[in-house]
Task: structure prediction
Amino acid sequence: MATINPEASKPIIKVDKIQSTLKEELLGFFMDPNLEIGGFLGSKDGEVVELCLDQKGIKENRSYFPSITYLNTVDRGWKKKGISFLGFFHSHINGFDRLSTSDKAFFLDFLSQNKDVPYMICPLLYERNKEKIISWFYIGRDRIEEITLNEY
Ligand SMILES: [Zn+2]
Result:
């Protein structure tokens, strides 16, 4: 991708923290390491404050695809509480710890269709040596990179 000055266009990541109890809640959604799950995150005042398991997502061959219709319903409720949509979380089976090509394509397509969403933070849940792990990814129009969220 050609960018004249990538540093100049780097948006500031304003959301950088999560309460440890909420992180535990997120891990709790990922009970079956053989079935992909997913959902949505909401943020307020620079931190992740809402998690919503996507009950209406499509499950095909153990893979999960988000329901945008359900997301819109959830997001309407969040907006009334001053909460902004922040991104999608999902799990991977077999310990796959990277975003897949189709994950990235979906995220970038979502951003291109939702100009009001400046960027997303999309955690990925996976299992390694029986331990459940979360990797946080920043999804911007110009780049995708793994980031660290502060837990407190
Ligand atoms: Zn994925």
